[in-house]
Amino acid sequence: MRGMWTTERVRVAEQRLMRRVSEGTLMRRAAFGVSVSAARLLAERTGKVAGRRVVLLVGAGNNGGDALWAGAYLRRRGVGVVAVLLKPERAHPAGLAALRTAGGRVVHADATGDTVGELLAAADLVIDGIVGLSARGPLRPEAARAYEWIAAPVLAVDTPSGVDPDTGAVDGPAVQATATVTFGARKPVHALAPTYCGRVELVDLGFQDELGAPDMCALDDADVAAHWPVPEPADDKYTQGVAGIAAGSATYPGAAVLSAAGAVLATSGMVRYAGHAADAVRAHWPEIVATGTVADAGRVQTWLTGPGIGTGTEGADMLRTVLAAGVPVCADADALTLLANHPEILDSRDPRTPLLLTPHDGEFARLVGEQPGPDRVRAACAAARRFDATLLLKGHATIVAAPDGRVVVNTPAGSWPATAGSGDVLAGMLAALLAGGLDPLHAGGTAARVHALAAARAAAGAPTSASGILAAVPETIRRLRRGDQP
User: Fold this and answer.
1) What is the CATH number of domain 221-482?
2) C-alpha angle 86/91/96, rounded to 5°?
């Protein structure tokens, strides 16, 4: 499990450590890490390091200092290094001196005209040392103009400039890095803005013990494999968990089929279906016990409701029934709209049982009254507290927030899950994991991870469908369990 800490907490931890080490030690350690990552990128791109050309985009303060010291280390490996100073009067003095001593060249962005563009266009690698963790907002005009010339890979120092380090928000020109080297601890941006960060590499500065519990976590493949329920020798179909699916309608039978299938293929011990699409569900999945109503479905360990149930009286009655059933409930799709339109439905909820809400941005806005905004983690946490429920906020980075403040973030490799019916498959997987005994936070993070991996596997570089994602789920789980590349 990878922890992430807000920039303020990282800054405090770093300051505590700095009191115990000599001045400049942490910067040189961080800069050496940047130089190692830069050499790796050069070798990957060109096959060699010595003789390559690196341009440093250098802003004010310590972030620019990291880039300058990294340039000095690269010079010792035979790399040609030019530092473009965006704020010459505020460039880090020691870093600037180290680069010059090592034989690096220095130019001023505001005094060289097209020369900066020519340097950037000819570079084999550009290191982004424009702004650090304290900066907010888009790239300033001179930095944005310089960035337009870049054709080479970009290595960001700590965080890509122009991207908010705590929220991942981008509201103007920003650096889109091939890789990011961060120091001491991962920050929220590294999970929330993967398109801008690229590959993230961590340099340990030695203040991990100062950080405390992380502000958010991301599950890795080993975590997912460990969490995924598998049958033990004494298990039977009931002890593994019975997932109840109250979904679909005569108008939308596909929602029932996909969500029920998601539960089946997520290795639920048993799946019971209740609703008007019983015949369609049985036709596709004969192992499902299908009935017409929740009352006739029999005992379950969890209920999923919402996909395709409609937003009329019948759907509302179904939602009330499952909320009062005394088992964990996953409310998805139409169930969220019903809760937004009729908040009194929540009065039916058994207060002792967990509730998992799974909105996309539009459903979130209906539930809460406003869009999540740029700080999606804060918005998800506030909604989780408001509804006393775990909230899975869908998006490129899926945020799962528990009412007690714990947060799990999943960052997929691409946008392959963005296809019709994909959310129904995910909802069924969530039902299976809840029935298998996972708490809603880990069920959400684990299902989101496998769903994203299955989507990438099904797509294989081309658009896929919800049925394709569904078919890829079992093999994705198998590979995770074996420790293979999923």
Assistant:
1) 3.40.1190.20
2) 115
Q: How far apart are CA 244 and CA 242, in angstroms?
A: 7
* pTM: predicted TM-score of the whole model, two decimal places: 0.93
> Which stretch of DSSP H or E encloses residue 479?
helix 466-482
**Where do runs of H (alpha helix) occur along 166-244?**
189-192, 194-197, 221-227
Torsion of CA 153, 154, 158, 159, to 10 degrees: -110
pLDDT of residue 238: 81
Task: Return d(Cα 74, Cα 187) in angstroms, integer.
Answer: 26
Residue ranges in the chain modelled with pLDDT below 50: none
What pLDDT is attached to residue 79?
98
> pLDDT value at position 111?
60
CA distance 112 to 106: 11
Continuous segment of H or E residues that includes residue 430: helix 422-435
Nearest C-alpha neighbor of 153 from the set 5, 15, 75, 40: 40
Question: In this structure, which CATH number among 3.50.7.10, 3.40.50.10260, 3.40.50.2000, 3.10.450.50 belongs to the domain 2-215?
Answer: 3.40.50.10260
Q: Are 464 and 421 in contact (CB under 8 A)?
A: no
C-alpha dihedral, 180 to 184 to 188 to 191, nearest 10°: 50
Any idea of the CA torsion for 443, 201, 396, 248, to the nearest 10 degrees?
A: -30
Q: Residue 136 has which token pair?
A: 């907010």
Contact predicate 476/447, CB 8 Å: no
Q: How far apart are CA 311 and CA 238, in angstroms?
A: 32
**Residue 161: which H helix or E strand, with range?**
none
Q: Where are the domains of the chain?
A: 2-215, 221-482
Helix-helix angle 440-459:422-435, to 10 degrees: 140
Q: DSSP H helical segments within 241-375, as ranges?
A: 253-265, 278-284, 313-323, 334-341, 361-368
Contact 68, 92 (CB under 8 A): yes
Which residues share a beta bridge with 226?
none
